[in-house]
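Two folds, back to back.
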Amino acid sequence: MINKIDNIFRNRKTDILGEHKKFAVMLLLTKEKGEAHIIFEVRASHLRQQPGDICLPGGKIEKDESPKKAAIREAVEELNLKPEDIEYIGEMDYFVSPYGTIMYPFIAKLNNNSIIPNKDEVDHIFKIPINYFMNNEPQLYEMEIGPNLKDDFPYHLVKGGRSYKFSRGFLKQYFYVYENYVIWGFTAMIIKGFIDTIKKEGLSSSLPSDSK
């Protein structure tokens, strides 16, 4: 038995315990009048999930597809781009949500400013200067998360039963308000992570214009 276990685990690659839905998104950078912007989508109103929400290009990772390839593929499909329009830069830290979702964010430069989004998925796009995020902290709301147990929960198997101190926590929800747009949820969390990272690397709270 031990030898069989040895064969299974000796060269096994680690993964995250449990079943998770995996998604990848692309933070696309573009220049408008020499200033760096981030591209956002407004999801089509007829979509079954999150219609009208603001998001980054991206979607579900297909079977046997890497997160990077998924992010590029989804950006190409949703924005009607060619793969060569996207100049890949790198990856950000990924996020494991308490809802069984893993989000893998990537960063790339867009080499095509003529975007006609796919109306099956995207109502329209808009762009926000990075300097806006550098100079404006998001609103923060801490959303409590914890057990929502039903009456048929097997309390008799837990020491303490109904009096057991089940763990609770808080999920930080960020909100950026830019003109008539509200960016929140995973998208706002990714943007904040992006801004925090570049500030940590020594960039000032206001980026200079790039005329190149």
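---
second:
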Amino acid sequence: MSIHLPAFIKLDRIRQKKVRDYIQEKGLRAAHDFDRLDTTCFKPDERDSYHVHTKSFTIESDLDTVWKTYLTIPPRETWRSRMVSFGCMYCKRSKALTYLKDKYAGLREGQVLFLNISLFWGAVNIAVAHQITRINPTEKYIEFSYIEGGKTEGSQRLIFQETPDAHTRVIHRTTYRGKTKSYLREKRLYPYLHGKVIAAFHRNVAQKVLAVGA
């Protein structure tokens, strides 16, 4: 009879100090610790308390190719820019921890990604975490939510649409609110920084799509 030992976090495989600190502060050591992380999904009955940020991106490739690439590209390649980098990932379904250089099996519901956001040329670093909450291959959308305990609550949805010229439009809709109310942060700072982060994210995927099709 085989015995499956629980997965324990290996902090030495996470290069960002803020991500390591975040994991330690939350007491995340073994698989069952990560399983108790809760999401802060958008609550429709409280919609008046949320803000909405929407940006659209066009990729010059067919819908099926773009959709497949978003599902298979490793997070170390998507979350990679001057502002954001991938720390590690935990999957609530497989109970597996994945690090920067590990083989990636594809996007799955229940995956929790830990990222480092670098601001002001690296002077300020913030760890954030979000969970993949829904992948709908029929309606072609991917949804993920911030993990409870951060400065921001809400959900992000990536909607994939075919354009008249057989390319693909990706609409990135973020429904968010601050845990503490701040006009400057919610109406000015967050939309600006968030817009730059997701633009880099989609640019990285687009480059992968075009490289595969070349």
